[in-house]
Amino acid sequence: MMLSKGLKRKREEEEVEEEKEALAVDTWWLDPGHPAVAQAPPAVASSSLFDLSVLKLHHSLRQSEPDLRHLVLVVNTLRRIQASMAPTAALPPVPSPPAAPGVADSLLASSDAALSASMASLLEDLSHIEGLSQAPQPLADEGPPGRPIGGAPPSLGTLDLLGPATSCLLDDGLEGLFEDIDTSMYDSELWAPDSEGLKPVPEDGSGKAEAPELDEAELDYLMDVLVGTQALERPSGPGR
Amino acid sequence: MGEDTDTRKINHSFLRDHSYVTEADIISTVEFNHTGELLATGDKGGRVVIFQREPESKSAPRSQGEYDVYSTFQSHEPEFDYLKSLEIEEKINKIKWLPQQNAAHSLLSTNDKTIKLWKITERDKRPEGYNLKDEEGKLKDLSTVTSLQVPVLKPMDLMVEVSPRRVFANGHTYHINSISVNSDCETYMSADDLRINLWHLAITDRSFNIVDIKPANMEDLTEVITASEFHPHHCNLFVYSSSKGSLRLCDMRAAALCDKHSKLFEEPEDPSNRSFFSEIISSVSDVKFSHSGRYMLTRDYLTVKVWDLNMEARPIETYQVHEYLRSKLCSLYENDCIFDKFECAWNGSDSVIMTGAYNNFFRMFDRNTKRDVTLEASRESSKPRAVLKPRRVCVGGKRRRDDISVDSLDFTKKILHTAWHPAENIIAIAATNNLYIFQDKVNSEMH
């Protein structure tokens, strides 16, 4: 397998250049004078790197027995990437064609809570799958309090694969690992459910980012799960 | 870097003897025994193949000291854990030889969950001349027996018998990544991602947990154990490495549970090289004590480092294995190559260190002269008894004729497992499903 030439990084490097000029913060990755920034690859993670990491995470979880080292390293990397992307209070909003900066910022802010919640519930579901793998049944009221759970979403059968491993291998379930990870990219409000593949948040104005080696099955699976989970909370929301 | 220096003075006159092709399976571990007479390999299919070095004979000087297959056996089978609905891989993760105490040889082999002790014995004589049985073993007609004879032992073709003597099961929830025999020859330890257990070689139904880094809340899990090893001389000391690039030296005399380290070896992050992948590339994939016991060798994604046990703040030596990959980390993250776990090895005199890389390349660093060499293990590039030619990876700029460009490297050809004979300049290199044994005929003495 050959390494691809660096072409697909080019656009993100240009974005990074713009962002570096616009922001004045005391963080190493954004300091234009810092020697690391001069020679390093994109110092601010592009959304595609974030997407890639989230997919790796899910792929790792899908293994019958996840490689704990791989999982932990991906989670830690994801946290670093997320930390570099999350706007802080001191920062002006990230400029984003076509959306207005303020809109982008508030979108992120409002979707944070919803998506943290949805990710948490997704992983909560995963940790309960063990009980379902023998006989698929509607989820009992085992969800965290305050989260109404209807019938099992149609896609839940595909989660059987994950079932026994996640709760056996990591006794307390995995949801806690990801509570602090903001996956606002995957808010179904921002993301047309019948579109193919991944779309980054509109703020960078791109279409489908150059996806890494994803197979259709993985994307569909991810879609099903997220949209299906959303369906639990908002039965009248966008369906598949 | 070192690649550009004149390599003529490096002793790279290795001769290749054979390439032993194990077509069926990918080699997952390689280990010489304490004398170097035997070489064990484990593969993904759960088999162990042992090679034995032929004694040097004057009649056939060209074939002196070559390795031939001695024994092959199935160590582990795939298992199904019914409770968790999981299949347990039979792949052999590690093999460690026990010091030889009698005529038999013993080794420990482990997969993800179970460690087994195997005893290897030779049978080269058999008794003949029984009174009650004939040559085929049938009972004789007693009326034909007129005198008594004493059965005598007669030579027979060598038969190597392997038998499982102990099975150490159910000690680990997570995947075993290393085993190490203590210098006391009575105990050994096994390490998985979160715990390290101490076993007595004669007792299989219990083990002592000596390290446990599992957090009370799995949400707080940020670090796993990646490798561990007992000190070669001090039976109370062992080291384990982590995914965050730290080494912890522990003393079993200090406490029953060695969660608190005696020494923590950690190099501060280099701010000029920071990236999102810093942690991943700092993850230590292998740790080996030097034969002297004074140093430790670690391998992370881009470097090998030598640590002095007396200095915790930083390694005393750092060698770049393939620095040209630093600008490719994003792609290597994408294709998961950044998670590859390379091993490292000392030579017998602790003066040279070796580790594998991509494109079937492996690297050697001479600690005294500071010279290094890149060699390739492949059938295409070397014929039997030919001298290995040093290779060079070019990163742009001037390119010599036989150089390989970084973008042409084959990342599916990785040399993860290497071993060095304990006393001589003989190395074993596992390249996917091929085993290469290289001998230095010119300089067989260590210096």
From TrEMBL, chain A:
Chain ranges of the SERTA domain: 42-89
Name the domain of life: Eukaryota
Which intervals carry biased composition (Basic and acidic residues)? 201-211
Instruction: List the Pfam families.
Output: SERTA (PF06031)
PROSITE patterns in the record, alphabetically?
A: SERTA
Q: InterPro entries, alphabetically? A: E2F-SERTA_domain_protein, SERTA_dom
Q: Where is this region: Disordered?
A: 135-156, 192-214
Query: Can you name a GO cellular component term?
Result: nucleus
Q: What protein am I looking at?
A: SERTA domain containing 1
Q: What organism is recorded for this protein?
A: Phyllostomus discolor (pale spear-nosed bat)
Recorded name of the encoding gene: SERTAD1
From TrEMBL, chain B:
Q: Name one GO molecular function term.
A: protein phosphatase regulator activity
Please state the gene responsible for encoding this protein: PPP2R2C
Q: Which domain of life is it from?
A: Eukaryota
Keywords (alphabetical) are: Repeat, WD repeat
InterPro entries from the UniProt entry: PP2A_PR55 (IPR000009), PP2A_PR55_CS (IPR018067), WD40/YVTN_repeat-like_dom_sf (IPR015943), WD40_repeat_dom_sf (IPR036322), WD40_rpt (IPR001680)
- PROSITE patterns, per this entry? PR55_1, PR55_2
Record's protein name: Serine/threonine-protein phosphatase 2A 55 kDa regulatory subunit B
Q: What are the record's GO terms for cellular component?
A: protein phosphatase type 2A complex
Record PANTHER family: PROTEIN PHOSPHATASE PP2A REGULATORY SUBUNIT B
Into which family does the record put it? Belongs to the phosphatase 2A regulatory subunit B family.
